[in-house]
Amino acid sequence: MKTSIATVSISGALPEKLDAIASAGFDGVEIFEQDFIAHDGGAREVGRMIRDKGLEITLFQPFRDFECLPEPLRAKAFDRAKRKFDVMQELGTDLILICSSVHPRALGGIQRAADDLAELGEIAAERGLRVGYEALAWGRHVNDHRDAWEIVRRANHDHVGLILDSFHTLGRKIDPESIRAIPGDKIFFVQLADAPAIEMDLLYWSRHFRNMPGEGDLEVRRFMQAVMAAGYTGPISLEIFNDQFRGSNAKATAQDGYRSLVALMDDVRRVEPETKIDLPAIPPRVRAEDVSFIEFTARDGEVETLSSLLRTLGFTHAAQHRNKRVALWQQGDVRIVINSETEGHASHVWNTRGLSVCDIGLQVSSAEDTVTRAKALGSTPFSQPTGPGELAIPAIRGLGGSVLHFIDGTSGLDSVWDVEFAKTGAAPSHAAGITHIDHLAQTMSYEDMLSWTLFYSTLFDMEKSPMVDVIDPDGLVRSQVVESEDGRFKITLNGAETHRTLAGRFLASTFGASVQHIALASDDIFATAEKMAENGFAALPIPANYYDDLAARFDMPDGLLERLRTANILYDREGEAEFFQLYSRAFASGMFFEIVQRGPGYKGFGGPNAPFRIAAQKRLGPGKGMPQT
Fold this sequence. Notes:
By secondary structure, this protein is an alpha/beta fold. The strands form 3 sheets. It has a 9-stranded mixed β-sheet.
């Protein structure tokens, strides 16, 4: 199976696009006519440039408004086609895409279109070229792949075939199962695009909101299952029109495209094992079981500031690394590591971002399978020298400069805390009832959200929630959740569109640090709040107006409202399922901790409380009211 992507899918001039496509690992490229015309080199030079990068030209596209035209427009269309054939031969490609006509004078008619394509097929055959016909979702007379196939079938020419595009089929809600009846050798080319479920004009939707397979809501996998079941063996290509991608980093977009394509075809192979998909075998999506550890990088006085905050949260300095300036703080199943080394990854992160999360350790079903799959999807492995007695824990570079380490229970990697660390013997006298990490909140620019969602959903066995808007007094933040099936591992991805929002300010202050807050779980948040207050914990103050409004919104048992008010705890309810939230004050340019109690059946994250929490945080400002040493 050859992978391909259209040049229109990514930003930049043609050479920049080709560099990004080649470095991402694609086999070929669709040349979008506009990209070729805008380039200042001739067709032969472009063809050589593409082949020098190890790519082939899988398709030249698009050729518009060809079939069913009255004279003299029909003769002009054939003349235009011959000129494009000249360009194709100089480029070194043999396939052109002809999309169904939208010309206002197009006459329509299945047989008329078939006759035009058959005649063009004869001209193409003389030059050793092929013609692919595609039904545009907004075509004047042909807007359904079933009609396009009937036209190709009637044309009955070896050099005329069908081109299928998932958006044009799924965007019109056409069942892709009909594709299974089309002979595979008559499908000349397949283009893929996903899209969010939005009710709008098809042309505008297509031109501005397409995205990579897995980033949207269309049934792209079902589409490809039908295509492969038909016996198709040609290239699988991405054609993505997206305003955001046009302004994004070309290499990152190309890498996302490659990741999405490999993951999709791996999914199809698992569902349709009898189909011929020529891709190296890779492990299935890995089960992410829990967060094993969160590692901060800190120096000098920051170490004590963070340590003091952890004490108030009920953590104990449980162990110290045998070889390094690395401290392990623990409470329940939560491990927080403070790394104050002056060399290595943590040091590099501190030099760039100051006190921040530099590493996330995940407990997975298989660390080896995780890294193997990640590499196949285009991720970069991460390693640094290990000292005497240290374990080589598999890791990859995530997005935004992050690093993920993977620990499992079958390879002995979960013994790292006994092997590399010496216990301090400190008693957990400050313990406040924290049991585990409920979720992590990662902040990014809005344009990077699709990348992060794709990264997690293609590597791990996780589901994504619909995107929601979080109201900040100074703008909107887009939020989306990815979580494991059992809900034990959850990440909220928050996309900032302006530096004026709390999330945007954090990104600007930390030069792109990813983890903005860590949500810790308690089975009794009131007991936890009481113990933390004894430890010197300074909660985020919530205004009285919030609690007055709660009394109007919910019927509460006697005394509950006052307990909430006294402890600065926020409240939400879904049906009968309750949710409680308590926040620390901000530190380190806007990081904070959250403590939650999640009642049985509550699936949310306290979304209705977000505007009031953000307003309270902005009033207080970063770092104010934190415990002092």
